[in-house]
Amino acid sequence: MTSSSAARAWFEDYARELKAGDISAIFTRYHHDGAWMVRNGTPKLLSFAELEARYRQPAWQPPVSFKWKDLVLELVGEGGLLAVGQLLWQAKGANTAELYSYTGLLLQVDGKWRIRLEDENFAGLVEV
Question: What phi, psi does 6 have (nearest 5°)?
Fold first, then answer.
């Protein structure tokens, strides 16, 4: 099983890819069977193709600033990783960052973490 330091590095790499707008790298972090996305309390299972389309649409823009906050990672079962914390996302031209709660469940596929569930809910604005 992967160490917690390797799991933390996975999230640091994910943050760098988001800030860089590396769409190909971002959507390949998701599980090949798709992922549950929970927004405003509503769960929806998106296929891998739907996840790719989500990031490739013109409306998706990378953040100018992205930061994990108080992220706790816990290895669960055989090949599972639970992530709980918050994220700060600052959009281009914004004077504030959006704060979201974050819960993720990652599963190992061929030795690599893949997101199977992401629950992100708006928690407020933060001055930057």
Answer: -70, -35
Residue 21 DSSP SS3 = coil
Does the pLDDT of residue 124 top 90, yes or no?
yes
pLDDT in tens, 14-37: 999 999 999 999 999 999 999 999
Contacts (Cβ under 8 Å, ≥6 apart) of 36:
43, 44, 45, 46, 116, 117, 118
pLDDT for position 128 = 86
Token pair belonging to 110: 């061929």
Q: Please list, in sequence order, all residues whose beta carbon lies within 8 angstroms of the beta carbon of residue 90, skipping any fewer than 6 positions away.
A: 63, 64, 65, 66, 96, 97, 98, 128
